Amino acid sequence: MTITEVVAALRRERTAIAADVTDRFLRYVQIHTTSDKDSPSIPSTPRQFDLAKVVVQELHDMGVTDVELTDSCYVIARVPGTAADPPVPAMCLMAHFDTSPEASGERVKPLLWENYQGGDIRISGDVVLTPEENPLLQNYRGETVITSSGDTLLGADDKAGLAEILSAVRFLLQHPEIPRVPLELVFTPDEEIGRGLDGFSRDMISANVAYTLDGGEEGELEGECYNGYMVEVLCTGEVIHLGYARGRLVNAVTMAAQFVSMLPRNESPEATDERYGYYAPLEIKADMGSARIEVYLRDFEFVEIERRIEALRAIAAAVEAQFPGGRVAVQPHKQYLNMREAIAAEPGVMERARQAIRDTGIEPVERSIRGGTDGAKLCELGVATPNIFAGGVNFHSVREWVAVPAMVRAVETAVLLARRWAEADSSPAS
Ligand SMILES: [Zn+2]
């Protein structure tokens, strides 16, 4: 079956796909899966198993036999390919179970706004979606928009991605005549608290290529994120009885304040956007004897991270010079690296995503993530992992919404990726 024929088959079954993905989505969002950054366990909240078990059952129901649920709440499933020959390596699709602790995810009651006619969506009280604040709404006149009931988040991040991957697999299993790549599905807990891969090991999958369906608006495609470093700055003072302190006290509180005041304000998160990176002082814990400052460094270019680490060392030396007897140590810790290099090393991973999105009838919207993703950690393990839209808007808030056609388009994109990777080279096939 050619790409054009697959697109036609998807068009014919659009109504059934919309019903299937909406159904799954509405089921998943009603399961409480908020993660908890203060919990040390994996997963951070056992309730994430509730959704994992539902997903395992639904995979079995559609005929996927190779499904595993690990003690750490990872679901790993394998779907054999149907490409004739030559054999092609597997492609991985990923999504996460948890929702953000930034808004309640308990007792989510999804509301369906069918046949949206433009204008405001009054969810409840003062929770209103206006077209001014949500210009994308205008693309969905006559369509169904889904919101929460206004006192919780919706959970499209990332239950839309989860529902879309399952709907894509269902479609592919119903159409074995479509040549497809072997699929490896990985569903993870705790993405929102930055621990989505803590219980993951490289040997769980064989694929060298993966896509997270965890992006926002329709068409979004991200192949780049920040390099992230956390730098600990440790100030050590000299404590003396305050009555005899003249010329002898070295106050670590004052040293820490001085250090932070010397960070360049024009390279702060509040002063930068687009491709500029920054220093962000997150926290100071201090008494007169010692102080600890946490500084985040973010930049798309690694050399800029190195430059900022050197600058922090220079500031440390300057503070030491102003506080004789005091000590300032700078300790950088890597958090994550830009996915760009790993993605560039795997030819075709971005190009096939662009093609698959175009196949669905829209232009890809390429962005750089001013943050990190689980994809970045997979990239470090050698799996090239761009992020693709799941369709939701206003993530982590009570104003979160998703339109059904955006979810359908994400299902189509996943199906077309499976079709496109069934071919050994990425030259445009028709
Ligand atoms: Zn997410």
UniProtKB/TrEMBL annotation:
Keywords: Hydrolase, Metal-binding, Metalloprotease, Protease, Zinc. GO terms for molecular function: metallopeptidase activity; tripeptide aminopeptidase activity; zinc ion binding. Zn(2+) 1 binds at H96, D157, D214. The active site is at D98, E191. One of its GO terms (biological process) is peptide metabolic process. Binds 2 Zn(2+) ions per subunit. It holds the Pfam family Peptidase_M20. It is an enzyme of class 3 (hydrolase). Gene3D superfamilies: 3.30.70.360, Zn peptidases (3.40.630.10). It comes from the Bacteria. The keyword Protease applies. Belongs to the peptidase M20B family. This is Peptidase T. It comes from Spirochaeta africana (strain ATCC 700263 / DSM 8902 / Z-7692).
